[in-house]
Structures are given as C-alpha cells and as structure tokens.
Amino acid sequence: MAASSLRILTIDDEDMIRETIAVYLENKGYAVLEACNGRQGLERFLAKRPDLVLVDLRMPEMDGLEVLARLRELSPDTPTIVVSGTGVLQDALEAIRRGAWDYVTKPIQDMDVLGLAVEKALERVRLLRENRAYQENLEALVRERTAEVENTRRQIMHRLSRAAEFKDNETGRHVVRVGEISALIGRAVGLSPEECDMLRQCAPLHDLGKIGIPDAILLKPGPLTDREWEVMKRHCLYGCEILGPLGSLRDARDWCSEPLPPTRGDDHNPLIDLARTLALLHHERWDGQ
Fold first, then answer.
1. Which fold has domain 3-125?
2. Residues annotated as part of the active site
C-alpha cells in the first residue's frame, strides 16, 4: 500500500513536537491528522479512521493510557505507537499492556527511528489484514465446496431412491411418501431439524434393495410362496450392501442386538450410515422383535 494512501493520527499536547512529527511524516508521503489531547484524538479517530495512531502519554483531559484502552476497544487492529518523554519503564510496560505496538521516547534524536517504527507497524498490520482476508476467502471457498459436495450427495441419494421405481412403480411413489412421513414422525418425537432432514433424505432409500429381487417375484401379481417371501425379505440386506459392504450377508436379525457398523475408511458418512440402517432394518417391528 502506497504511503500517500495511508493516514496517521498524531496525538500530543506539545504543539512543536506534534508539528515536527507531522512535517516529517508528510515528507514521507503520509497524510497526517493532528490532535492536541486525548479526547480530541478519539474524535478525530472516529471521524477519519486513520491507519495508525501516535500518542503521547502525559496529556490533559484524557491521558495516553486511556486513549490506548479506548482505541483497543474501538479498533483492535489499528496499530498504535506511544511517543512519550516520560522515560519510566513502568509507563512503557503499561502502554504495551493496553495495546501499544511500539514505544518511542522523546526527545527524538533521530526522526528516522520514528519512521522505522511507523513502517514496521504498518507492514505488520498489512500482513495481518492480508492473512485475515486470505483466511476468510479460504473459509468461504471451503463452505462453497462443502455445499457443492452436499448438493451432489443429495442428488445421488435422490437418484438412488428412484432406482427401484424402474422395476416397481408402486415403490417409486411409496418412497417419496416414506421420506416425508419419516421427517414428520421425527419432528413429533423431538428430533432436531437436521436429524429430520437426514430422515427425509435417507428414508426413501429403504427399499433400494428391491432392485436385486428378480422381476418374477417383485412384480408377481398374486400371492408369494413361502420360498418367494424368503427371497423378497433379502431386499433389506441387498439395500444395505449397495450402500456399504457388510462383509457377509447375514440375517438381519443378527444386526438387531448391536449397532450397525459404520461404512469403512474414507466412505464413512452419517447420511450413508443412516440410509444403510434404514435399508437393513426397516421391516423390523417397533419393539425390535
């Protein structure tokens, strides 16, 4: 950032010192604001929002320590440099504690000492602001990418839930109703809005395994034989296996006494885990039997 675009506020009750500092900084290309006491300095700060503040400690009406404390409340990112002739170590420590970034003692034998302190403070705040802007941009990018991934996941799950529709028209209409009704039931029993939304997305996948059932059984117009019923029951296992490998297709009752293990490795996802559980156990009775 060019010096000509930066504004510096100098607060000092000694006119000669304040004017000397102002002339030096103006020759360096900075725009300089002046205030003769702490109260006026705060007013100038609020009106002009300078990029850096130089402040004396011993001033009438409001001393420099109070100014530092107020500035830290108003704008903690604005660098402040104490320029004071008190020469007391305790004052310097208290100034730093209240937010001063640097301390230059008066009388200033070499004005370039002040110039270097100003440059260092402005460079530090520039880096801090750039880092914050980078962090904010990165966080915004992460949120955007996360939203894209979530939207893609929702679309995939929606299309999976429609897979059975191509073999069973009744299932296609049924799964949509199940999703909405499941969310309503979830709300009624006190689930959070996020949990209800997960139910709405996952419940339509409960009959996904029907795509693994032979058409002769799935679309049979009449009653199923006992053997056909045994085949039909396996759609629960098929659906769970599609959403995440079980390792072996054990009887669903084996899973009822213990939590369904999550998907393995990088595939672990709460939505998929819930969908697997619903696909596997949706024909179990409400009391688990």
1. Rossmann fold (3.40.50)
2. 210
